Amino acid sequence: MILSKLATAIVESPTLRLNEEARILREKGEPVIHLGIGEPKNKTPITAILAAAARLTSGEVKYAPSDGLPSLKKAIIRYTEESYDKVVAPENVIISAGAKLSLFNILYSILNPQDEVIILAPYWVSYPEMIKMCYGVPVVVTPEDGSFQPRMADIERAVGSYTRAVIVNSPNNPSGAVYPEAFLAELIEFCEKKGIWVIMDDIYHKLVFDGNTCPSAYRFTKKDIESTNIIVMNGVSKVYGMTGFRIGWTVTNRKLVSVINNVQAATTTCASPVLQAAAEGALTGMQSSVESLRLTIENNRRVILNELKSFRDVKCQPPGGTFYCLPDFRAYLDRFGGKSVALCEFLLRKALVVTVPGKEFGMEGHLRLSYAGTVKDAMEGVERIKWALDPSSPNEIYIGDRKMVRDWL
Q1: What pLDDT score does 286 carry?
Q2: What string of DSSP letters covers 65-90?
Q3: What's the rounded Cα separation, in Å, for the pair 319 and 261?
Q4: Is the pLDDT confidence value at 297 over 90?
Q5: Angle at Cα 141 formed by Cα 337 and Cα 203, nearest 5°?
Q6: Between 312 and 364, whose confidence is greater?
Q7: Edge to edge, what strands does the sheet with 163-169 contain?
Q8: Phi/psi at 143 (nearest 5 deg)?
Q9: What pLDDT, on the 0 to 100 scale, is given for residue 19?
Q10: Rounded to an integer, what is the distance from CA 47 to the centroid of its chain?
Q11: Residue 267 CB coordination number (10 Å)
Q12: Domains of the chain, with CATH numbers?
């Protein structure tokens, strides 16, 4: 059997394998705690549910325009003006079946074979694979000081004649880092001089803490929407907790939207009109659910950071946004061959806690912990991890209704 070399080069994610192992354990009744989850626990906004139900009960569930329903575009235009202080036209917006597809369509539309895309470590796991699927080359820039804040000097050294884009995800998955305004201003000025696209992955842009806000990238350019190198992608999955609805969008110049539209028309045709109606309901309804979610997650962050302080040798930079943190577990990796994947497998087997290996994000030795669930899960999950790794913790612990004795330290 002959298969595509490109497709078979996309490796299986250790994260998905760990999730599958956790699912099997849960089905057996094991009390697994999932600190790897990438979605908030809040319910879908009622305005989204009612809008989707109205579309269904109308019986008019047919093809939508390949670039999106006009009414949802109108809602996104309003959202862009309110959130980014930028007025755009319907021709500057295209709606896709999820923000992930939005990014893939962007990359497919701007890259030629061997073109390079700079990604800033730590980075979302899908970036390198998507770039390779579009015959591009991912170029990873990792901060040399061990922080999660990229430096322009490192980016400038990585830029070459084949560089076509930089992907910026702030607030950042997996670290929760929020990039400084001065950095964004310098990056956008540099990229616009060089003719390099700046792809802003803003999926978490309203989930920020401590009274801060994420600056709009458009603040740092004097160019209009048709001439700027800034591309903004967003969606309803994280801010509204609507991960299963798979609605994302891209805001950029008309020419690029037209190309993306041709790509989309030849592949998915359109995003589901029922799900687009739900997204419209979320965007146009009361926005109190967003602030309620943000406050819940901010409180969860406080709890998990406080629990992590009890570790003797774990360091964690406080996240400024998202619902993730990326603590440094390198002090415990000697027994695991220095590999965070092996550590995650151990924690699942011994402590029944799902974590995500930092290797997936370009940060070997770290673990991504999600605090999108409950406070109880955050506290008990970290307690179990400490019991499994830290000799100073009690030797016995209850996991579910069973007393477990540590016999490996």
Answers
A1: 94
A2: -TT--HHHHHHHHHHHHHHHS----G
A3: 36
A4: yes
A5: 100
A6: 364
A7: 93-96, 248-251, 230-235, 197-201, 163-169, 116-120, 137-141
A8: -60, 130
A9: 81
A10: 24
A11: 14
A12: 5-43+289-405 (3.90.1150.10), 46-284 (3.40.640.10)
3-state class of 381 per DSSP? helix
Position of tokens 């949802």?
72
pTM (2 d.p.): 0.96
Helix 273-284 and helix 70-84, axial crossing angle in degrees, nearest 10: 30
Higher-pLDDT residue of 25, 326: 326
Q: Is-contact 14 360, C-beta < 8 A?
A: yes
Q: How far is the CA of 96 from the CAs of 83, 233, 261, 280, 372, in angstroms?
A: 20, 10, 9, 13, 25
Looking at residue 137, its pLDDT comes to 98
pLDDT tens-digit profile of 112-163? 999 999 999 999 999 999 999 999 999 999 998 878 999 999 999 999 999 9
Q: How many residues does the chain have?
A: 409
- pLDDT tens digits for range 227-279: 999 999 999 999 999 999 999 999 999 999 999 999 999 999 999 999 999 99
The Cα 330–Cα 347 span in angstroms is 15
Structure-derived torsion over alpha carbons of residues 227, 230, 236, 240, reported in degrees to the nearest 10: -120
Q: Is the pLDDT of residue 16 over 80?
A: no
